[in-house]
Amino acid sequence: MALPFLRRAAPAAAALLLGGCSALGDWLTAPGTSSGIPLPDRMAAADAAQPVRWPDPHWWRGFGSPELDALMTEAMAANNDIAAAIARIRQADAQIRIAGATLLPTIDLTTRAVRQQVGTASSASVAGVGRSSRVRVSASDQLSLAASYEIDFWGKNRGQVEAAQQSASATRFDAGTVTITTQASVANTYFAMLAAQETLAIQRQNLDIALRVVRVIRQRVAVGTATGLDLAQQETVVAQQQAQIPPLVQSLEQNRNSLGTLVARPPETLRVEGGTFNRLAVPAVTPGLPAEVLARRPDVLTAEATLAAANANIVVARAQLLPSVTLTGSGGFTSLALENLLRPGSVVFSLAAGLTQPIFRGGALRGQVELNEGRAQELLAAYRGTILAALVDAENALVALRQTTEQEALQANAVRMAERAYAIAEAQLQAGTIDLVTLLNTQQTLFSARTTLADARLTRLQAAVGLFRALGGGWNGI
User: Fold this and answer.
1) Residue 429: which H helix or E strand, with range?
2) Domain spanning 2-104+154-322+367-470: which superfamily?
3) Tell me, what's the pLDDT at 339?
4) Closest CA to 112 of 137, 139, 147, 146
5) Count of alpha carbons within 13 Å of 76, Cβ hemisphere only?
């Protein structure tokens, strides 16, 4: 038979084509299979004295806001970006099935029934007034199965399956990145809305203080202890405080509307109360080893799986240079009469084995190999860059949370001092022991300190969210 010959001839042809090249998978043992980046023993910005504490899978609950919990639950169920990522996972799983079909034979069932009538006319009659005809009916019935199978000598089909599986893994990891990003966006947007709400309240308090001072100065102008210039200066302060309110209202409403986008609801239907800005807690978190940080981050795993898929595609491209062996067979029944179709005499079959060796493709096949190898090298560089970016992201997030925590504490102390100083200055102004310039300076210091404290608290909250995101958040794919 032809098959043993094909088995003997195929390796010889492969050796001839590759000129003594090593096995197809040898490329995968090259430096391209590892990142080549030595990882440190610990995170530089982490407190080594603290026990390791990774983010909770539902890390946002640590802030102590039931409203944020409800928004996060709604976003996880309805966010359009997450829904699109899940749909891409379904597509990737379907690609695995498509690629896996190449490892199995193809089988087709064919049935056919033909009835054909052919009529022929005879010569004219002697009288020339009539014609006779003869009708012939032919019939044919067929029932057959045909099968074809490509022997995967060089791992081409297995490489296609491996590439599809790695691509599906990358798609799943990418969905994890989308999920973490969405969670961080919900938290940051909610905190920004609370901060705008808090700053708006502070600004209205500042306006009330400025108006109270205006009333005091007007009383002093009436008795001749203050001038019109003093009154004009304080009225300018009032106007400035009033002018800062509309942008804060705008920020508040826009952040509320952005939350509607994240939870896939029209902004008009979303009601967010807020009012908990100063009651939010900041959950404690301490990362472990850098390697553990990388294992928790789906973006790093996406880059790794994408590189593995590219390596598998190199195997596929190199296998295209080698002979392909195909087995085909068909069998069934055919008969001119339906009642005889399944009788032994109606059996027909055929078996064939074929070898196809590419001879000349104008360099297209080798070009495809080089293309896939170049693509893998590009992805290797991207993988290394992703690892470095992940480590830098985690370190920066640790530094940011530590420094913003300290900044908020210091600014809160500054506000307490500014409030005490202003209370003294206002009392002394009413007693006539200081001039208006001193009060104005103390007043501006208080206004600025309060606003800066709200900004510092928002920065700290967003730094905490950034750290949870940098450490893989609540992604459950680990």
Assistant:
1) helix 364-431
2) Outer membrane efflux proteins (OEP) (1.20.1600.10)
3) 62
4) 139
5) 16
Helices within 119-227 (DSSP H only): 156-223
Both structure tokens of 412: 């809160």
Element (H, E) at 9: helix 2-18
Give the bridge partners for 117, in sequence order.
137
Selection from 103, 127, 157, 56 nearest residue 473 by Cα: 56
**What pLDDT does 309 receive?**
95
Whole-number percent of the chain with pLDDT over 70: 87
The DSSP 8-state label assigned to residue 40 in this structure reads P
123, 101 in Cβ contact below 8 A? no
The domain limits of the chain are: 2-104+154-322+367-470, 106-119+134-151+323-356
Q: How far is CA 36 from CA 30, 332, 395, in A?
A: 11, 59, 20
How far apart, in whole angstroms, are the C-alpha atoms of residue 327 and residue 294?
47
Phi then psi for 450, rounded to 5 degrees? -65, -45
Q: Amino acid identity, residue 437?
A: V
Question: Selecting from 2.20.200.10, 1.10.10.10, 3.40.50.1100, 1.10.287.3610, what CATH number does the domain 106-119+134-151+323-356 have?
Answer: 2.20.200.10
- For the chain, give the percent of residues with pLDDT over 90: 52
Residue-level pLDDT at 410:
97
pLDDT at 440 over 90: no
Query: Which tokens sit at 153?
Result: 């000598």
Q: Which residues neighbour 32 within 8 Å (Cβ) at sequence distance 6 or greater?
A: 307, 311, 376, 377, 380
